[in-house]
Amino acid sequence: MGPVGSSSIPEALHRAAEGGGGLSFALPDGMEPITPVDLASCAEAGAARLTSWGIRRGDAVAVLGQNRPEWAAWAFAVWAAGAVLVPLPAPALALQSERLAAGLRSLIHASGCRLVLAQPEFLRLAGELGRPWDRPHRGSFELAAPLDRRDPAVIQFTSGSTASPKGALLTHGAVLAAVHSIAVAYQLNPSMDRFLGWLPFFHDNGLFGFLVRPVLTGCPGYVLPTEQFARDPLDWFRLIARTRATITAAPPSAWALAGPSSRRVTAPKWEARRLRHVDGRSQGSGYGSSGTARHFPSDTSERSRFGGLRSWIAT
User: Fold this and answer.
1) Interacting residues of 299 by C-beta distance below 8 A, sequence separation 6+
2) Rounded to the nearest 10 degrees, how much is the dihedral formed by the CA atoms of 61, 66, 312, 175?
């Protein structure tokens, strides 16, 4: 089940559909779940629609929007169609400046996108290639030839914080290997572990760590919309308590912002003792702040407040 033995992300998704897990989105109207079976069905329906719009194997298709079930459904639809996913940065809040639009146009052009699937609120930013997203429900699709591990899966852009964004082309094999390596390193147990994240899906750790990984490993995953974290960082910790999440992650700036406030959320409400793995870094970034770690356990006695932690990373 999952990524082991799979040649592509769609194949791994179909294997995952035989088990449990899936994603649950903590939206303003309540928790909205989407199971691996739902995702597999949406992926086939979406792939059929993409093909009807002229998308072919190897074409670049962008997704622009906030963390929603539609984002996840269309990502897997892009892969099911044999196309290459291009995650585009969406604003956490409803800010749509011309500078942002120009930056997105640059990324769309650089990646050679044929289509941009956009959350309706951001459709204007997508330009002439934009189509409003919805949740695909009906339809079937099968590639003439199956994908393999060498096929391209994602064009992942760097953040552009220190230089112009640069796109990295990642294969299906690279994504599956990354998912599998973390599953082994964390000794993931679907009956015990629950992921919880708010990082945007256009961020590498948001996409691979808190969308792809829980789905393909059979672990339940919970998603807090990024804009909700921006409004109230404590909602992150409240949702950890509510869902009994065991794995979470965020960049140092987020821990520095939310860490001091966490002292106001005490057990049993703030059940951080359930966390097994906490990552205080952006995935692969290496960025850190010496001021970040002071908000979190530094010795065994203090760490007992977070009992059960097997990994604590705050660079």
Assistant:
1) none
2) -10
Q: How far is the first Cα of the chain from the last one, in angstroms, to the nearest whole number? A: 34
The domains of the chain, with CATH numbers, are: 9-21+36-174 (3.40.50.12780), 189-313 (3.40.50.980)
Give DSSP secondary structure letters for the chain: -TTTT-SSHHHHHHHHTTS--EEEEEETTEEEEE-HHHHHHHHHHHHHHHHHTT--TT-EEEEESSS-HHHHHHHHHHHHTT-EEEEEP--SSS---HHHHHHHHHHHHHHTEEEEEE-GGGHHHHGGGEEE-----S-----SS---TTSEEEEEEP--SSSS--EEEEEHHHHHHHHHHHHHHTT--TTT--EEE-S-TTSHIIIIIIIIHHHHHT-EEEE--HHHHHH-THHHHHHHHHHT--EEE--HHHHHHHHHHHTTS-TTTS-GGG-SEEE-S-TTT----TTTGGGS--SHHHHGGGTT-SEEE--
Q: What is the mean pLDDT of each run of 10 residues along the chain (315 residues)?
A: 81 91 95 94 94 96 97 97 96 70 91 96 92 83 88 89 79 96 93 95 95 96 95 91 92 80 55 58 41 48 38 38
What's the pLDDT at 161?
60
What are the backbone angles phi and psi of residue 103, rounded to the nearest 5°? -65, -40
What is the value of pTM for the model shown?
A: 0.86
